[in-house]
Fold:
Amino acid sequence: MAGVTLADVIRQDSELRGNLLIRFRIDPSGKVRRAEPADGSFPDTAFVNSVLDKVRRWTFEPTAGRTVEVLYPFVFVAPS
Structure:
């Protein structure tokens, strides 16, 4: 969802929390080429799309000519 930031979503629902499992693929140059939720249970689609947008911008050290697939868990809690 273009234009929606994590901060926007949290402002709309300050009690947003949950676990989000993201699967992403790192190409040999170290760029994330694909990111998607591996588990569709997080309650807010706009939030998930904002997280995916951020993950897709990550870069890593080159992977020695290999493509690497990562499964990464995030845990979001409301600020106290």
Summary: Residues 6-76 form a domain with the TolA/TonB C-terminal domain fold (CATH 3.30.2420). Residues 6 and 12 are 10 Å apart (CA to CA). The chain has a mean pLDDT of 85. The beta strands are 18-26, 32-37, 68-76.
